[in-house]
Amino acid sequence: MAERAAAIDLEAAAASRRHFWSRFAIYGLLTVFAAVYLIPLFVVVFNSFREQAEIARDGLISLPRTFRLEAWAQAWSTYCIAGTCQGMQRNFLNSLWMTIPATIISTLLGAVNGYVLSKWRFKGSEVLFTLMLLGVFMPGQIALMPWAFVLGKLGLTNSTYGLILVHVVQGISFTTLFCRNYYVGIPDDLIKAARIDGAGFWRIFWKIIMPLSPPILIVTVIWQFTGIWNEYLFGVVFTSGQAQPITAALVALTASGTTARSYDVMSAAVLIGALPPLLIYLFGGKYFVRGLTQGAIK
Amino acid sequence: MSIHDLSVPIAVPARSWRDRLGSIVPILVLAPSLAASFVYVFVFTGWTLYLSLSDSTLLPSYGFAGLDNYVSLWSNRRWNIAYTNLFLFSGFYIVGSMAVGLLLAILIDQRVRGEAVWRTIFLYPLAVSFIVTGTVWSWLYNPVDGIQALVRGLGWSDFSFALTSDRNHAIYAVIITGVWQSSGFAMALFLAGLRSVDPDLVKAAQIDGASVVRTYRKVILPTIAPIFLAVAVIQIQFAIKTFDLVAALTRGGPGISTTFPAIYVYDLMFQRGEIGEGAAAAVMMLAALAVVLVPYSLWVVWRRRAEAGNG
Amino acid sequence: MTSQSLSALTIRNLYKSYGAVDVLKGINLEAQPGEFIALVGPSGCGKSTLLAMIAGLESVTSGEILIGNRLVNSVPPKDRDIAMVFQSYALYPTMTVRQNITFGMESRGVPKADQAEAVKHVAALLQIEVLLGRKPGQLSGGQRQRVAMGRALVRDPKLFLFDEPLSNLDAKLRVDMRTEIKKLHNRVGKTTVYVTHDQVEAMTLASRIAVMHQGSVQQFDAAQMIYSRPANMFVAGFMGSPAMNFIPAELGDGAGRPCVTVRTVDGGTAALELAQPVPAGAPRNVVLGVRPEHIYRFSDDLKHRKRAIAAVKAPVELVEPTGAETLAVLRFGDLEVTGRFDPDSAPRTGETMTLGIDMARACLFDPTTQSLL
């Protein structure tokens, strides 16, 4: 009896040891990866509060000894980019005035398109959907010259409005795809019931589809906002100088280091450029992943 | 009035203009987006295709030049390097980010504490632009200021980590940074896939005596095979369109060692005034995408048909 | 025109095709005011499509649908004066029960006070007053079902349409709700078209049943007629559970009386005397249709009670007691026949019993056309 109990104890001890080591390995690996993912962030955040002199002395990757906000102030309003010394504020606002309208317009269009393509199908609507889907796969480069021409004709070169137009047209494919795939999951019976109840196209959209849409609208808004804010190619091609969005300004700023590189100001500038999508992601990331896997990727 | 109504003894209620309007509202609503997409996808592509066959240089011009631009493009060493880089980068980038993403997803799937925190840490780079990522990593790769300097400062005086200043290895700096940026995205999709596997399937495998590793290899991963493909396709698109990452990280250098088609298109069109050849390079990018996406879409359609056939 | 001939719903020669596929092939139906019609058939028979066409949710390929005496072929659903209860209930998930019920009235611009009055009335009728403030997600299956009916009732329509409304409920609740639907129909007396794949539901609820198969109506008749005189082998097999037994037989003349010869288990034959004369023009080979409850344990007493009992021997292969009755699988030549017995006189597995078949209730079918002789 006692022998058997001891044997069971031994087995249990071995199992719990195995369990301990496997947990140790899991958390160990996760920690190593987390360090790799976080270190670049910490480096930038620290350096944005350090003094350039300190960075030069202690190295780029080091804990901060000082804490000052001058670099942020400089990056925001006085640092010189390609001869103009107004910091990044103009570019930040450009990005904001480009991203917010483009996100709202493309999301709304996507929602309505998705609604039509899932709940009001007509002959050939699947073909049209496939056509719109092709836009998802188009490399921006293939549209550069035509866009340059069209924007020129419309008088929208070097303007935020031009970029809004480009991003809306490019974004419709994504937003339509997301919304359509999500709406397909809403039972058709709801629409039928509403039609019998006397509701028309728009009433069904606003009263039934829209109240069910927050999960997919969050995905679409986050996708569009981060995508448009972070976009660089169209920004650098269709605008210049003070009209550029923040991504283009960042590249210009980090390239224009004439003498010693001022890592403090550049770090602050990088963070200013990264902050809006980061905030959006921190607040909505949970819903983003959930929604993305619920319907968007199929 | 349609033909079969003619025999009707009772008056047919004529459809009011409101009903008629109601039935075309969906099409009217869709029309602007459709028109825009049509122009964007077909007209713009056709336009660039035509430019690639034209004699355009500094300004678009519509004289027909046949395949001259393509010949000149492919005889250029820089383009050949760019195209080779694209395949090298795509391969390593996709395999790398999927491998890291899958590993992270499986680790997180082991009922770890603070799952939300780990997920947030691995996913946040997705929110950040390639420009920001590229800029910061270019500092870390910088031999004078970055990681090499740090390790040497710790006493390892022959430590060498200067990928971006080495022609032969700079491409790996681009790959590593790309993987860092996008493996979290792969992780999120894989994790969702793992979570969607029927728990009874896993229980059945456990009762059958399968080890954890075997359960993953033989039961769980095969059921989420479609996710692998979806992740790969999404990553390939990133890879082929990648312009920002290289622009911020290496600017194509040192020399021309990290030139990519996307960079080259930009240079030809807007720096060197070779619009025709730039258009040809853009068309080649589209071709590279098509090589990947056409078989994939056919597969998706085929699978959907097969599923519909079974259901 | 007398009020008798004015029907609540008339369907004439209705066709529906999707491309080259004909889903409905010439449907003719009509419902008297206040009547309860059931459309029953296996999945894919077109019954739900037919209902959707009555509702106006599907277009008409050809033919006519009249509600009252008004041709509604191209009238949109909202103007057909109908209400519909869906299989999935289709309750608007983001609205409360009250909002679900008033949504239709709001769409039509009914004054608020009238809306409140109507909701009060319907909620009392269905005993859902306490649920009015809840969302559909917080309701049980039976409660959702009630709300769905409330939403339909509040319309006070000419025509009620039900699309398999009970199939998502568990067995016990389904029986309860079935009773309630019947009570409700008796009370409000509205013309109702009810789609179901459950023949018991159809039998219990409907005054007349249309049995559908492969896009056409096989038989449209009173429930009892459908059961006792099925128009063809499909209807006979579909209505009733366990299904009617089909036994290949040969028409003959036994001792001057018409009879059918069937094969028995020992390879021999048995002649069963028919209760009615053989219909004119019947083929020599027929199919004998016998419902399980018309197979008895043979006894002299039985012979006295029933007019036409034919005796035949069969071994018992399997016995399935269900409590109220006992089903037995009997070997009959090379086919199996199910009999339904009183538990007291139930056979035992392995026994060879003498069966008494009630020939007065048996049906004869033509095996080529499958229709009733």
UniProtKB/TrEMBL annotation, chain B:
Keyword annotations of the record: Cell membrane, Membrane, Transmembrane, Transmembrane helix, Transport
Annotated membrane topology: Multi-pass membrane protein
Domain of life: Bacteria
InterPro entries xref list: ABC_transporter_permease, MetI-like, MetI-like_sf
Keyword Lipid metabolism appears in the UniProt entry: no
Compartment annotation: Cell membrane
Segments passing through the bilayer: 24-50, 86-108, 120-140, 170-194, 219-240, 279-302
Positions of the ABC transmembrane type-1 domain: 83-298
Keyword Ribonucleoprotein: no
Family under the similarity heading: Belongs to the binding-protein-dependent transport system permease family.
Protein name: Sugar ABC transporter permease
Organism: Mesorhizobium captivum
Biological classification of the source: Bacteria, Pseudomonadati, Pseudomonadota, Alphaproteobacteria, Hyphomicrobiales
